[in-house]
Fold:
Amino acid sequence: MCEILVFILRLGAVRQSAADGSPSAKGRPTLTMRSLLALLALMAMAGSAQAETAQFDLAGPALRVNVTHQGATLPIAQVPQLATGDQISITADLPDDQSAHYLLIAAFLRGATNPPPDKWFFESELWTKKGRKGLSLTVPDGAEQIALFLAPATGGDFSTLRNAVQGRPGAFVRAAQELAQASLDRSRLDTYLAAIRKTVPGDPGRLDRITPLLARSLQVKINADCLTKLPDLQAPCLLQNQEALVLDDGHSNAITDAVAGPGADLALQLSATPQGGLGYYSPYIAAIRDVIGIFGSIRTAKYQYIPALAMLRDDRMSLALNTPPSFHNPKSVLVTALPVVAPIHVPPLQVVEATSSLCANATELLLPIGGAPLIYATQYAHDLVLRVRLPDGRTIDLPATPDAERGGLVIQNNGGLPVSLTAPVEATLHGVWGFQPFDGPKVQMVPAQPGHWRLGADVPAPGASISLTGGAAACVSGISVQVGSDPIQPVAWKSAGPNTISLTLPDKVARSEPTAITITGPSGVAPENLTLAAPAQPKGVGATVIARAIRRSAATSPVAISLAGDTDIPSDADLTFSLCTEKGKRFTGRETIEVAAESSGSTAILSGANGLRLADQQVAVASLTPATALGSSAFGPLRGRIVRDGVAGDWLSLGTLVRLPRLQQLSCPTDTTANCTLSGDSLFLISALSSTPGFEQPVTVPDGYPETTIAVPRPAGGKLYLRLRDDPSAIGSITG
Structure:
């Protein structure tokens, strides 16, 4: 407010000096009385907008709208954008006892500096028999937006509204754009609020589980502190500051972009500045503040214009108001907008969480999808299926339904795929966005492989993380263990690759009893059982790792990869580790060190003649380059043990062996909205890339990716983050 006032006073001083004929005033802009009044109106508007809560909680009238495009008809809720030649049917859905006579007016707009002609305005007297049939419109060539008006009937109402639009086209173009954007943002907000308000008895941890997924699916921000409260207090906390929850969504903006134009008034330009509040609120609030300000600037003695947000469901367009309409002068004209007339923008669907495969035997699958909140908040995406191509060339469509609470598309596979499937097959997400068919991300459908799981370690230590390999990780739904005759208990596990899972054993495995591991799969597939033999008795040759050093040549790759943790070991690095023998024992120089990679089964033997030196009788220092000693295909947990007089000691963890791609260059175009290109060799060793360390919107690298370049997000803060396929839990980065 202060900045606006200073701006007015300065311009007023310039205006006065010009009026006085001051030489220093030559070439300076002058502030006309009309501009001054516009700015004063803006000041008043800004003050009222500060207190405006933007709560559109008043139910207004409703319209029924259908759109026909090239012979196909859809309800308005499934139409994100219109095209020239589209036919639009609009009728009012008013109650039978509607007493106020409303005039429905449709106006096609074509830019801020280009007033629409008279023939682009249409009216329907809704209280008459003819008017109840509504409007049948065809989008003319050159139209960019469509504004709808519901005005109380008065003498000369149609011509008055038409003159207002033709006299201030920029204001109505901007208003139509902001209303369309606000309606999209409101749909995301309403979807979030409905999920939070839903009560599910017997599930106290529901909000803690679904809230992060809702935030990712709908691109809303949440107060994480709310999840630390008691379950009964979480929902009220998460519902606070509702209008500020919505984050900027690039796709929503893309489908509502329209011409604001250089002809917009000074007041409209100033309303988009931080002083006007745009810099301090979510896009939803910013759009509402803008449109309220625009309508405030064109109020007349006869009419005042109030915004109406369109809430869409099938063909019904329910209007929500934030102020009660007036039927006395100035009468309230409700203004809303239909979708913009523009090329189709299909949402940038992305598979998240580095998901590369789904289980072909499961009856219900979840495909995590991010990057397009409107598939969860609107009906724009419809007829969604996962199209599976079978080995014989046939395709099968599995229905897909967006579920914001679960963070993805729920795929129904009730007997859709043949049980005889024995090898992975490719599947593509297919659907229709408005009238436009599209293909989305690809994934693999893998069949369950019972009987293939095997242990990746000989005898695991108690409380250690072990790997199981050979089966289909996508088809694992749970793992439980039983130590001896103790009760069965579930254990934490995670997928470490298409054919690898890792789990943590309970501490009680240290007892001299066998441990049974049960791997549960989808319904209809029998659980698989593995047994760990009782841990062997100590062999008296134990040791501990007391130090470790990793050295990697700076010239290994033109673009260096920095690893965040200290447990990952690049396979092409020089690894040195020190072992201290147990108390009462000493090294004699005849020992060897066996180093093994669990993934490949390959081992390397270090001796006094090859990589092993004694520091003294208690400490030995071993050195090797894993890629050279174990082969280029070795990765995963790396172990070492002492072999003395033919007797092997216990395995000791040395870290996780990871293979790194050789990156050549990260190239980014000058267009800051365009993706960058990463080039290099062995890009298949990367599982996902992201511009943020949280991997909110990652780019997934397909399995076995053979190319030498890949499109990647533009680095944020100068860094591009990546997950390695050999250790998906670790995050590395490169400097862009």
In short: The radius of gyration is 33 Å. The chain has eleven helices and 44 strands.
